[in-house]
Specification:
mainly alpha; 68% helix; 0% strand
Length: 59
Amino acid sequence: MALAPFDAAACLSETEDQHALLAKAFASGDAGFIVHALGASDAGLGMSEADNLAVVAAR
């Protein structure tokens, strides 16, 4: 049985989903989780849009 690679960005097609992930990551205070969440969010957006979501999530 072959497994397909998991692409988190494919599950984050809605801005609300990305915001929720980033908010949870920043709330955790876990740097690794924050980096992962930023990367997953950026994969489906332009970087400036992902940066804006990160700023909102960090508040």
